[in-house]
Each structure stands twice: as structure tokens, then as C-alpha cells.
Write a structure and sequence with these properties.
The chain is an alpha/beta fold. Helices cover 31% and strands 22% of the residues. β4, α2 and β5 form a beta-alpha-beta unit. The longest helix has 12 residues.
Length: 245
Amino acid sequence: MSKIIAIIPARYSSTRLVGKPLADINGLPMIIRVWQNVSQSKYINQVIIATDDHRIADVCNQYNCPFVMTDPELNSGTERVYSAFKILDEEQDIIVNIQGDEPLLKENDIDNLLNNFLKTNFDVGTLITKINTSEEIFNPNNVKVVLDKNNCAMYFSRSAIPFIRDSEQEHWHKEIYWKHIGIYAYRKSALEKFVSLPESNLENYEKLEQLRLLEFGCKFYCVETNAKLISIDTQEDLDLLRNII
């Protein structure tokens, strides 16, 4: 049995929605709702919040939720996950980076990812879902991924990929396009490699940190989910989520 820890990075100073980890969602702070969902996983041994702010730490204490304080100057969520992992100083085989702004992500989705990923020798496991509308395809906030025949990611992009030369763009949604969902199951060696590498050119161009490992040869295994998830980046996203719940 692999030892698996999930770490949820929670930064207070989000540029588009300040304090969003503490946003109220029908009576629960968003970060606590995410922590509760992840804690139901049958594969994960431990779930920790990695934060940079005492206000989030205070809420964690209020709900008896384990947390680690990390440097507010860290550049990415993945760096925050690694920092928390090192502070905890525990032996783990898999470290799962759970986005703190995915409150609709359920334990079934996480377990589906881990169940499939653990059967492979890939470096990182992640979730994908089918795109059904043109709006999703051409929205740069939706990260698209192209797969090979083994469900290995060939490239992640904010652009609409692949480009279908002989079809009008209004019909592209009839083909298979994949949206990437930002949950990552890292083998320990892959996470250590990520923080040891410099920021890559592709990562800098697209502002997608997963391209760092991809550009340096790591393999991402992609597992499909049918879950309808909403990543909370703006007040409009938050209002929509509240209506759904």
C-alpha cells in the first residue's frame, strides 16, 4: 500500500478574489469544505492545509483542521505543497496537490484518479473532463490538454488544441476536446524534481506550472471524470457556486 498525503495550498492574497479560501459557501468557509471532501478519500492517509496567513490558520483551528504555515513569498501552489511536505518531514510515496478553490471536487473523483494512477509508472496523475461547448474551448481560463494513445499528456495549453484545419471553429465542440482539472498526484521524486528545476519557457509563456515538468520529460497520466466542477476565481464564480449548492 502506498502512503499518500493530500496537501491543499491556501493563499489569502488572491489577485482576483482576495481572501477566497475563507469565502462563505452556505455556512462553511470554502477551504474547510474542500478539506472535508478530500478527507473522505479511502486512499489518502492525511489531509493538510498549507497556508501563508494567520486568518486562514485561525479558521483551521476553529474547525480542528490540521495546517502548516508556509512562506508567503512562495511562487506557486506546488512550491507551497512541497514546503509543507518538507516541514511535516514524513515519509510519503504520493503527494496530492488539491486546489483549494475546487469545492465541488468529491472523494470519488480523487479515488478514481488515485486508483488508476497507482497502476502505472507515470510521474504525475491528473484529472481531465470532456469539453462540450465552443465557449469552453476558446476560453483561455479553461486549460486544454492533448493526449496520446496511453492517456499521457502531450501538451497543456490555454489555446484551443488541437487545431482542426478542415473544420469551422463553430463545429469544433463536436470533436473530442479535453479540459484539464488542476489536481495532481505526484510521486515524491516528481515533486522534488519540480522544485529543483528552473521555470521553463513554456511555463512562462502559458502561465501553466505543469509545463515545467512536461518540458523536462516527466509523464502525466490523465484520468477522465464526468464531474461538473467549478474553479472559483472571481466573484461571479462564487455566486454561481452558491446557487448550485
